[in-house]
Amino acid sequence: MNPHLDKLQPYPFEKLRQLFASVTPNQDYPAISLGMGEPKHPTPPFIQQALIEHIGGLANYPTTIGSEALRKAIAGWLERRYGLPALDPATQVLPVNGSREALFALAQTVITPDSGQLVMSPNPFYQIYEGAAYLAGAEPYFVNSDPSRNFACDYDSVPEEVWKRVRLLYLCSPGNPTGAVLTLTDWENLFALSERHGFIIAADECYSEIYHGDEPPLGAMEAAHKLGLNTAGKPYARLVVFSSLSKRSNVPGMRSGFVAGDADVLKKFLLYRTYHGSAMSPVVQAASVAAWNDETHVEANRAEYRAKFAAITPLLQEVMDVALPDAGFYLWADVSRTGLSDTEFAQRLHAEYNVTVLPGSFLARDAHGINPGRNRIRMALVAEASEGLEAARRIVQFCKNLNK
């Protein structure tokens, strides 16, 4: 057996299952889950129709590089969304089966196994980053998010000897679970570090189209273009961006996303994926073309999230420290004033009001003396507004009863 498997921790939802194993939820309340970030808004009918119309594609083997039509659709979306100059769909874009498997696979492509290399990750983080590091034969290094910096990580605090060992840096902007968006200054500093030390940046941007302000979140390729990142005539040097239709278009079951950026990295990544067998179904490719070429459904989806957050956030602010995030569909709340830890809060809320939230400590690791997720909970506002409001009312009542 691969000895690195022993380093993997249970996934957060397995930890949650164990936390609730001895709990019988109050059956006076129907179950409501704010635990998993699985979009619940309806899939747009035109995407469903595109799947049906291209069902004949099941008779064909897909190519790993994907169809020219899909690569052009993705390149076109990137150019429109981020104001980028024309991309080469043949070398700078690659369709993938959802961003999750691609985020994992990139580490297997760029890491030299068991060489002492590090994979840097924000803390808290999406657990795939850690698993990808271990199974590629590297070690993770966590940089804690700081609430006083809008949950930005203080990369200036990382020792020089650590940077020298970093081969891959995972970033998530907008962040999971914090919703924080990196600024142009943040990107400028990170690009400078990447150039100095030669590591690759993997920018996870799957929440980019759900935002709550007037301006869309700054993207990594957009920042690189604005800053003139063009090392030795190579645009987007050492930068690979990941995105997905799951949240943007409410199609998590399609497993459709892309990677884009440094053509040299993508060439090696394509070679790895050809052997790995990761090719998108022609049926899904056709439906993905339709989704990437339409913004009307994305705008409607964003408006629905904004309405939910506007209604739910003020209710929860009565009983806990929580604020509207920059973007994404999570609320990242501090429950310290309730007198309960994050795990106690989640367990008792589930038992007394049949509402599921995810303890923040399950999404982070102890690093540099703290666990930055401790005493926080993540709430995924993915269900319809009425269900989210009902969950919020129960949480408010639960907290008020604690205060009594």
Structure characterization notes:
This protein starts with 11 loop residues before the first helix and ends with a helix. The chain is globular, with a radius of gyration of 21 Å. It contains 14 helices and 15 strands. The relative contact order is 0.18. The strands form 4 sheets. An 8-stranded mixed β-sheet has the order 2-11-10-7-6-3-4-5, sandwiched between helices. A 3-stranded antiparallel β-sheet has the order 12-15-14. The chain folds into 2 domains: 3-42 and 297-403, Aspartate Aminotransferase, domain 1 (Alpha-Beta Complex), CATH 3.90.1150.10; 55-294, Aspartate Aminotransferase, domain 2 (3-Layer(aba) Sandwich). Helix content is 40%, strand content 16%. By secondary structure, the chain is an alpha/beta fold.
Features:
single chain, 404 residues, alpha/beta, Aspartate Aminotransferase, domain 1, 2 domains, 8-stranded mixed sheet, globular
Short description:
The chain has 404 residues and is α/β, with parallel strands linked by helices.
Mean pLDDT: 96
Number of domains: 2
Strand content: 15-25%
Measure the end-to-end span: 53 Å
Identify the quaternary structure here.
single chain
> Would you identify the regions where 5 or more consecutive residues have pLDDT less than 50?
none
**How does the major sheet shape up?**
8 strands, mixed
